[in-house]
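Please decode residue identities from the backbone states below.
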């Protein structure tokens, strides 16, 4: 697991940790029941506040990506396929909104967009 913090991105550090760990879990790089680094250990390794790391872990737990056992640490939760599907649906909707905006800007209609999608699927 390799978390990279970008101090100039404008994205809060806890959110960067949350997003990177979530992506590792969704992709399967982090397996079910795999232990995560301790909050203190991760904070020390990243040279950030324990509070920041704790917030990222709390968000991951609240979202159902990890679970915590008192005295034992945090672990990757069972992959909830519905949760993962919902994440991807949100991403697809965001991309489709952007595609729709671009298409309207150059007068491309729905049928042309469907043709483009069908052509992509054939490749």
């Amino acid at each position: 697991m390799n978390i990279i913090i970008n101090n100039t991105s404008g994205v809060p550090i806890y959110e960067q940790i949350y997003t990177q760990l979530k992506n590792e879990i969704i992709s399967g790089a982090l397996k079910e029941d795999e232990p995560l680094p301790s909050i203190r250990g991760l904070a020390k390794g990243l040279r950030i506040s324990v509070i920041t790391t704790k917030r990222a872990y709390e968000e991951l737990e609240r979202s159902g990506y990890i679970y915590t056992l008192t005295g034992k640490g945090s672990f990757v939760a069972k992959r909830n396929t519905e949760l993962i599907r919902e994440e991807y649906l949100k991403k697809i909707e965001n991309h489709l909104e952007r595609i729709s905006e671009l298409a309207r800007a150059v007068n491309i209609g729905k049928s042309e967009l469907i043709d483009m999608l069908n052509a992509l699927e054939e490749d």
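Observation: The chain is about 60% helix and 5% strand.
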